[in-house]
Amino acid sequence: MTRYTLRRLIQAIPLLLGIATITFVVIHLAPGDPMDMFLAPRLRRQMDPEVIELLRQRFGLDQPIHVQLGKWLVNVAQGDLGESFRYRRPVTALIAERIPYTLQLAGLALLFDALIGIALGIYSAVKQYSLADRAITVGSLAIHSIPGFWLAIMLVMVFSVNLGWFPISQTRSLDYDLLSTWGKIGDRLWHLALPVFVLGVAQAAGTARYMRNRLLEVLSEEYILAARARGLRERTVILKHALRNALIPIVTIYGMSLPFLLGGAVLIENVFAWPGMGLLATEAVGARDYPVILATTMMAAVLVILGNLLADITYSIVDPRISLGDGKPA
Amino acid sequence: MLLRVEDLAATFFLDEGELRAVDGVTFEIGEGETVALVGESGCGKTIVALSILDLVPSPGRIVGGRILFRGTDLRRVTPETLRRVRGGEIGMVFQEPGAALNPVFPIGRQICEVLELHRGMTRHEADGEAIRVLGGVGIPDPEKRAKAYSFELSGGMRQRAVIAIATCTRPRLLIADEPTTALDVTVQADILDLLRDLQEDYRMATLLITHDLGVVAETADRTLVMYTGKLFETGPTDRIFDDPYHPYTNGLLRAVPSLGSGRGEPLRGIPGSVPDLLRLPAGCTFHPRCELADAECAVRFPPTRTMGPARECACYKATAT
Amino acid sequence: MRRRTLHLLGLAAVMVAVLALRWDVFREQWSTPAPDAWIATRFVLIVPLACGLLILRDAIRRRRSAPSPDAGGETARAEGHGRSPYRVAMRRFAENGLAMGALYVIAALCLLAILAPLLASFDPTAIEDPVATRHLPPSVGHPFGTDEYGRDWLSRALYGARVSLSVAILAVIVAVTFGTIYGSVAGYFGGFVDNALMRIVDVIMAFPTFFLMLMLVGVFEANLLALVLILGLTSWTGTARFIRGEILSLKEREFIEAARAMGLPHRLIIFRHLIPNALAPVLVSAALMVGGMIGAEAGLSFLGIGIRPPTPSWGNMVSQGREAIFVAWWVALFPGLLLSITILSFNLLADGLRDALDPKTLMRKYV
Predict the structure, then answer these.
(1) How far apart are CA B247 and CA B183, in angstroms?
(2) C-chain residues within 8 Å CB-CB of A220?
(3) Are A147 and C299 in contact (CB < 8 Å)?
(4) Is the N or C terminus of chain A more exposed, i.e. has fewer CB atoms within 10 Å?
(5) What is the ipTM of this complex?
(6) Set of chain B residues whose Cβ sits within 8 Å of the Cβ of C95
(7) Half-sphere exposure of C37 (CA within 13 A, CB side)
(8) Is the model's pTM score more than 0.90?
């Protein structure tokens, strides 16, 4: 298994380099001087020509293109992504501040997606063709089609503004600092409730459909018939024999849902004023804060790659055909 | 009488119509007996087997008949009892050697599961017994193999494992659905020997489902010949092979080339092909292909007649010699 | 053919009804130089005429082929009993109630979008009397209410439909075209070219699509055209991978046969076999993509970086509604509802297409 892990880690490196390269290409395709990507034009007018020259050299902007790419890659690898125009702080620091919030949101949404989606999918498959099954199938497609940001606003309107059950936005209540540790955790979760729900429910709809199809597939396999022929209880057959097989590819599905999760987080963070990476990116676009725009996009891609890596490794643990076999899926 | 199946009927309710996979089948299996159920693909033999344990897949359903296992009609017992019979008193072996094994559990665990369920063993006891059982079916190095997954085993070993799972509870009856069809010829012989040994050791009856007449000749005490959901002929194997009453049985036996028979002799098949079960011919379903058929055969399906000691046949034209 | 005649009649009838109910608006818009009014007015005239002509043509055909006995095959095909895979698929699709419903909804939305200048009772961008007409709840005069500037929300929604639908459809065309070409090149040349091109695809796919769109819009100052291009050029990767796979598998087969067949150029075989086989899944994924594009454009407009006001887009309309959720719930509700219904319809359409075109989903398990 470790050999497989190592192999995947090594395979990830060119991908990471590729991400930085694409960002580099975008920098140079953008209208205007590439320098504008690193230094706000209005600042440039105020600064010493020597300082500007130093910056030029730091990013190698007067060198041939391949040298520039090299410098860029080295900078990125070292975590030097420039300074935010808006905040006058290193971009990396900004991102480091915001990432935990996005991870909390996306992580809990993933959990929600896993629990609810799988449960609904199992129920749907076991009670195939029943009213509940049809309702879940149609309902999940409907929910999946609702734009997340609108659903968020509607829910806020009903549950926060009118009913007052949940907070409208932000990460904490006004009296946060006065709460105990458990109180703080509870408060954070309370504030996370609606955003996580909106982000997770759309994903859960997809998971439920997939789980249903997958489970039905597994249930038609001969070893399930054989298990029944051995006198095993139906519950055991489904929850032990079938599920264990059906769940294996789910891990990959989760890997694939990461990009959508992160993209959706941008909009959700906007609606709920949740200070994560998505909100940072949106504000940066509005403020033409190029270093931040570029860095957050790169970071998002890095997260996706890391997430997929994690999913692959988990898959290799979970599927005995890989962990014991030659490292190739059956 | 260990098992008596009476007038069993199972139908598949499809959009295209009702498919009568099993249409009035009656037979018996005694203690320790080996009975072969023979027929071409699609004649319904697998459904007969699945019906006994009430495992007919939807859109199919048993629609009539009685399944008397040791005197009790299995169609009328509680689900709890049926569960106990399944695996505990009637074991089943399937055609594809690996397909009956769950790919994500080691085979030892799958045996233990059955032992814990039907013989009330503890986890520890079951582990030990599983290794013993694996050794008993001829798997070398059973301690190591018990931890193996099905994909790590060869076809023959997988089938042995499946047989182990089916027989470790000492069932009274073993239903074997084409147990050797998917295996190499040499392995086939081994598996058949294994089944015979187990049968002797455990006083186990076997319902052997196959289309391979060679296997039947070797192993079965009695033979049932099936076609389009109905039984054409039943009787002791050697008598049927020596002197078949039903023209279909005759055709089947003639179609088997024997090893060492003269080269250049034409293969003699049965003319025509097996009819679509949704559009069966009227009367005797075999009559369009039968050389003895006449107008009488096209009217009504022939009733089953006793033609001799322990021999029955459903044909208007069959004559007892 | 009866079904087709019914549809054509229905379409023509709807157009005539619109013409009749909106005659004065029609007269007014006929002479306006504005391009959207021009399209709308010509459309509402041409479509019923075209429908009429088609109905006539079908009737003549039927009468001509009915008496002669050996034209039976022709009639049969005309009646839709044909065995051609397209007919089979179309018939299967037509029997799928949910999918047909979705198709009708989409057709209705497209008609609403095209005819918006005729149907809208108010100018979507004109601000007349903000104080008196701001934030009026839904009523007969304003079925969707008004926004904070007093603009009729329904009219804005109709015009918003044009923007949202056209951007989405154009973007999908861009994505599918680019993806097909890219995948074809990779698959056809194989080897190093294929490898390099697919590595690039892998890297692009690592970016969450919405983030990529965000970055490109942020860096490139998106006008409408640029928006369509950005939306399209961030979503072609799936199609590219699929097409490349199809070509590779086809090459494998054709290579062996071509060794014996000799004569017919490689290229022709690939494309002649590829197009019909690949068309179906690409169509399904295109339908899905339209739904996704509508959502993506709406999201970008909602954030204020896609379509900007005063041009209405359902996305920026929801954004306006968000400001007003305390006092005017209708401002956010209606555009979002329209978005949801539209995206759902495209998803159902894609489902229906998939079921109609994919033989496997219809195979039943036999004994």
Answers:
(1) 30
(2) 365
(3) yes
(4) C
(5) 0.85
(6) none
(7) 12
(8) no
Class of domain A1-140+201-330: mainly alpha
pLDDT one-digit tens code per residue, C201-222: 999 998 999 999 998 988 887 7
Q: Render pLDDT for A274-316 as a digit per residue (tens, 0 to 9).
A: 888 999 999 888 888 888 888 889 899 999 998 888 888 888 8
Radius of gyration of chain C (CA): 24
CB atoms within 10 A of CB B239: 16
C365/B15 Cβ within 8 A: no
Q: First CA to last CA across chain A, in angstroms?
A: 15
The C-alpha torsion from B51 through B52 and B54 to B55, rounded to 10°, is: -60
Question: What CATH number does domain C102-362 carry, 1.10.3720.10, 2.60.40.1930, 3.30.360.10, 3.40.50.170?
Answer: 1.10.3720.10
Whether B149 sits inside 8 A of A221 (CB atoms) is no
The DSSP 8-state label assigned to residue B30 in this structure reads -
Domain ranges of chain B: 97-168
Provide the β-strand partners of residue B222. Answer: B35, B236
Contact B60 C367 (CB under 8 A): yes
- State the chains in contact with A (3 or more Cβ–Cβ pairs under 8 Å): B, C
The answer to whether the Cβ–Cβ distance between C367 and B14 falls below 8 Å is: no
Of all residues in chain A, the one with the smallest CA distance to C212 is: A297
Q: What does the alpha-carbon distance between residue A216 and residue A214 come to, in Å, rounded to a whole number?
A: 5
Task: Bin B248: left if φ > 0, else alpha if -120 < ψ < 50, else beta.
Answer: alpha
Alpha-carbon gap: B296 to the closest alpha carbon of chain A (Å):
42
> Model confidence over B172-195: pLDDT tens digits?
999 999 888 888 888 888 888 888
SS3 B204: coil
Where along chain C do its domains lie? 1-67, 102-362
C367–B19 C-beta distance less than 8 A: yes
Nearest chain B residue to A325 by CA distance is: B152
Nearest CA in chain C to A221: C365
* E strand segments, chain C: none
Alpha helices in chain A (DSSP H): 2-29, 41-46, 49-58, 65-78, 91-126, 131-145, 148-155, 181-219, 222-229, 234-236, 243-246, 250-272, 277-286, 290-318, 320-323
